Amino acid sequence: MISHLSILGQESIHVGDNMTAFIAQETAKTVVCSAYVVVTDENVAQYHLEPLVEELKKALDPSKRVLQFILAPGELHKTRETKAMLEDWMLSQKCTRDTCILALGGGVIGDLVGFTAATFMRGVPVIQVPTTLLAMVDSSVGGKTAIDTPHGKNLIGAFHQPRHIFMDTQYLKTLPKREFVNGMAEVIKTAAIWSEEDFEMLENNAVKILNLVGGAHDPASEELLVKVILGSAGVKAHVVTVDEKETGLRGLLNFGHSVGHAIEAILFPEMLHGECVSIGMVKEAEISRHLGHLNNVSVGRLVRCLTAYGLPVSLEDKMVKRIKKETPVDQLLEIMKVDKKNQGDRKRIVLLERIGKTVEPKASFVSDSVIRTILSPSMQIVPKSIQEEVIRLKVPGSKSISNRALVMAALGSGPCRLRGLLHSDDVQVMLDSLQKLVGISFAWEDNGETLLINGGGGRLSVPSSELYLGNAGTAARFLTTVCASIKGSGTTIVTGNARMKQRPIGPLVESLNNNGCKIKYMESNGCLPLAIEASGKGLVGGEIKLSASVSSQYVSSILISAPYAAQPVVLDLTGDAVVSQPYIDMTIAMMASFGVQVERIEGTNKYKIPQGVYKNPAEYLVEADASSATYPLAFAAITGSTVLVENIGKESLQGDSQFAIQVLEAMGCTVEQTAFTTKVTGPSNLKPIPLIDMETMTDAFMTATVLAAVAQGGDNVTKIVGIANQRVKECNRIAAMVEQLDRFGVHCSELPDGIQIHGKQRQQLKVPNPNGVFCYDDHRIAMSFSVLSCAFPQDKPGVVVMEKKCVEKTWPSWWDCLKNTLKVDLVGVDQHPHEQQQSNPSIILIGMRGAGKTHTGRAAARHLNYRFVDMDQVFEENVQQTIPEYLKTHSWDEFRQQEGEFLKQTIAKCPESTVIACGGGIVELEASRKILKQYAGPVIHVTRDIEAIERYLNIDKTRPMYGEDMRQVWERRRPFYSECSNMEFVSPNPLTDSLESHWKQVAEILGRFLDIQLLRKPKIASYFVSLTCARVEEIQPIIDQMTEGADAIELRVDLLASQEPQFVGHQLALLRQLSPLPIVFTVRTKEQGGRFDKGHDKMLELLNLAFKWGCEFVDVEFTAPYERFDALKRNKNSLVIGSFHDPTGKLPWMSPVGQSMERIYYDLNSRSDIVKLIGYCNKFEDNFVVQDFKKNKKPGIFIVMGPLGRLSRVLNDVLTPVTHPSIPIAAAPGQVSIQEINQMKTELGVHQKKKFYLTGKPISTSLSPVLHNTGFKTLGLPYEYGLAESDDIRVIQKLLEDPLVYGSSVTIPLKLDALKISNRLTEAAQKIGAVNTLIKQDDGILGDNTDWIGIQQSVLQHLEPKPSVGVVLGAGGTARAALYALNQLPFVEKIKIWNRTETKAQDLAKEFSASFSQLKDLVEEGKQVIVIGTVPADAQHGMDLGFLKTNVSGLVIDMAYRPQHTPLLQSAPDHWTKIPGVQVLLEQGYEQFERWTGHKSPRKSIHEQVWKAY
């Protein structure tokens, strides 16, 4: 049956199933033209074009023409260019005004074709045949047509009403599920603003509607879908009829779009329109709630409905996080500013009053400050004076009772009205999961205040998809037993977010498995995710033993499901103590309300639960959450105000209801409590509580802790005990409170089962800057610290609380309550938690004995400031024997078992900030391998050349040799090392005979490896030089020369002599040894211009090894359908270059039809950090095609190869592949050197001539002109460096007025004067108090100082970073740079200064955290020494330099660079490193060069020429 809807007085909307013939007949009958053009895209054409064209031909007179035009799919083709191409084609086909265009496709086709019809021949008829749900219910109805521009979506278009809109549900059966769900966002939107009845239908029928995806035939579901489309399209038709041109009412249809379009502008094309609008709807509903229009129930219903259809509801959703794009609030607001739905600078937002009704019959104006507050991930609490009147409020329903009531009502029989239910994230996932497990139906009454549930009577089935529970611990524990009670067949997956996967569930699973259940851990033992297999019998019952010493939720989980076991249950609680008994009592009391009586056997912890089915009470009142009530009551306590909570009192079931009396009253508050209310007035000064046991109200301990932080009296100490279970909640709450309160300046310490807090005066509280409070995604921590933030005096800046969204777990409207009810000023802050605030998991090293684990481990510990643990030493300390002695009386198997046990204990003792080096055979036992594989932190396989290991083992006799051939041992262990590690460090072979020098170099290489693996992403560079050698050894003599000016090196693995992993790993290690530059790891296939032909699996193995090896950039070739990208095991920081090469140049860069580089770009963009597209230049104009292509795309590598394509290389923006004259064969046709690129840029006018000078006096013998001019010449830059000798600062000022002068070096006597002419100063220049580098920038002159960098780099390049004493000789200007440099070296523990004039040295010592010493006391025995001389060479003869005669290791730098061998350098011991001043000059000059030019300095050439001139 076909249904019809009227719009603008015409019955032109038609909805039905299998309508192709009807579409053709109706078109022929009502739209008479000479030509009919069907426009569609490639995706739709393969399913639906031919049937429609054939039916049109049947229905039309033979004289009529039926034409078809197929476009490339996707939003990126909704452009002026595509429209023009379609128009040109229609003109070429002799189409006139007597033409009808049919838009067969989704919203892109409908918008584009509709706009074309509106302008072609000044307007021709258009018929919309939408093939997506989104197009049916939204874009096809109403006549709005448009194309996109680089400035935004749909900014150019027209109103052009279609003659007909044919909505055929048959088209939806070929729609991918994601596209179908994308359309459901608009359906839900329409119901949310217009019809609560339709919304309720959507809430209850998500499973039925989604079952239609993929072509399933279900008449009832199909009828439901038609009803959904008619309802949604009908609303839009009505609105358009009333307000065709969007002057008022039609604006309601933009609910969710103001914010959604801004999100879409950033996240397109990875996120679809409906997905972005879904997030926008939630945010705009939150704005309505924040402004007091919408209750929390309605927001929760909207979120639940969207989630039920698989739509994202937050920018923290895993679908969004996977994209790895930022959505800055400022950028979102800026985009919203140009949204055509706004008027001027004011933002128009559709505000809801309730589900199905808006605040106004149009969009409302909302201030930017409110929008910012809602969109920001963090909240700043600004101190202000507190109101004096009594503040009255109600708190949300109890999370504990809500979750229990939902499970019991769902398992019970009959209807049950739940009143006062909490509407939060936790309850949402519980309700969603129960729908999947039980198939319950529900309805909302009383504007959402009451939930009517029709219970399933114990019927359970395996859900069709996993149960994703986020961080909802209660749901995870309760539902585990519910899932284990399923009597059918199949497996249920219960999973959650990263934190949920760390929270324990082991005792519950062990207990259930012992009762016959089949539950498996899918990842880590004792944690989610779980695979729960339905046994056919469900829960067996009988006696069930359970350890209840960790969480009472395990007990409640079994209690709630026990009535449905195959036999009556006796639950025996074992262990030392049962925690949180009140929560167990609460569960038993609630079970009685639902008709099941639990009997506790007197004098025991045993409970008898009969078989039965819950009998749902007609109504059940969920009392308010006592834990949540503690926050407004604590607000009263900490601010001295009065707060009355109207829905929690002394008759509450919850232990936390005792908080007001036992905690607040004890701290000096005035408390009045009735059966159902609690009123608190805060004192002028809170008193500490010497000792309080909070075992019956553990969730409230954080509230008590923040109050104790400002409690004064006695010794100011509060001790809270009985809260050990809080270590296994959303986070380790005790440790979290200690850590975060420390940032407020409040000292706390952990007790075995509690916390001790030393209260602080409020004026002494610190504002935790710069990062604010980190909440560990824990709602109770966030709310507690928001209360503490109100204690600050008004003259202090506000405290930033990050992860504000986490409060949605129990009180989603907490921030609204804080702002609107408690009258606290809030400011949204776009700040995310910094990674350094997360824990630093310990690093485990594995590998063969002799691979260098100890050296490597100690170096890693120094680099990261971790402690180092050698497991061989741990073993020997534990058994009180050496390993050889132990093996005389024990077998190798016993040794290995004991070794594994000690490793397990060490990981438990040292979970953070430790490097643990294991013995070589730790991987021999399966049990030990399991420990390593389950470890969540870094496990690094340390390896090196096997022959080098053999040589070492022949020397080292401290450990027993292998009882078998060492090579055989290596071959056996090699796969074990690989499977147990997630990183691999290949230690290079020595290049010299000096082992000390070698291990220092290894430490430096390891530091770079750890930086990429653990700390930071690489900087995206300008140039990388492409190596074309078969072995890296071939380029060893010339590598410094060939990499001059380059920012990275490309290792072309496909060109190496072998692609075996061991060979490649050692080549990579050697390359790292020879150059500090980042590495681009590339394996280019034959199909894309390389030589690799060993197949997909081998390619994938090498790419994943590149991540294990810590390569900074990994080139991944484009393949469809992206198996290679999906199978990548990426590390934390390496960047992926998604590449595609077209060696023939046949593929067009841009084309709306067929495959193109542009389509590949958008496919790669969502999977890569950098996109690399390489074509071939067949004609010179191809260079300009590439430049056009780059517009409005993020920076990438876009080049055409070949001699004619050099211009594209010159104009490329980032990571341009280059060659060097010393490389015999370029990696690709047309590849040029950096020098050639810069020369061509000069010829094209891209590089302008620039001048730089050295100013000061005397400077005639300066080496700086040689240094800089050599660099300019080597890189082909059109710059020159000259001398301007003067002691007058006005000379520099005059020079800098010249538009060709871009900077100057400054030397004595002008370094101080240069401070005055600088518009801005770097931190170094400010601290040192002198400028040696001036840089002309757009906003003025930047004054800098690079002297300290010359000193720092000289130290880092020649000295091992171990605990050292820094010594500075002299107290002049250069001494200041030396002191600053030493303070920047983390391994310098103490700094000493000497000067002939002691008072001058003492003043400097105070300023730079140093101490004055006499010459004889400068060197300390046992500590490495760094001596920096700043005394002129001719003044050194009178100094007693005997203090240098020492056995300690050290380094001496003399800043004077004439003569080369100063008395200071000559007096240093022979075993010290001696660095003349000219070397420091070079290092600071390299830095100067790079800051002026933006290019890496060509160090080798500069070094040679400067020393030659010297």
Task: Outline the structure in words.
This protein is an alpha/beta fold and 1510 residues long. The chain contains 53 helices and 61 strands. Strands 48-47-46-45-44-43-42-49 form an 8-stranded parallel sheet. A 7-stranded mixed sheet has the order 1-2-9-6-5-3-4, with helices on both faces. It has a 6-stranded mixed sheet with strand order 51-50-52-54-55-53, sandwiched between helices. Strand 43 (1048-1052), helix 37 (1061-1074) and strand 44 (1079-1082) form a beta-alpha-beta unit. Helix 48 packs across helix 52. The N and C termini lie far apart (95 Å). 50% of the residues are buried.
Spatial strand order of the main sheet: 48-47-46-45-44-43-42-49
Kindly name the structural category. alpha/beta
> What is the gyration radius calculated from CA atoms?
36 Å
Distance between the termini: 95 Å
Tally of helical segments: 53
Number of strands: 61
| Range of helix content | 25-40%
Describe the global form.
Answer: globular
What does the main sheet amount to? 8 strands, parallel
Descriptive tags:
1510 residues; alpha/beta; seven-stranded mixed β-sheet; globular
What does this entry show, briefly?
By secondary structure, the protein is an alpha/beta fold. The protein has 53 helices and 61 strands. The longest helix is centred in the N-terminal third of the chain and has 24 residues, at 219-242.
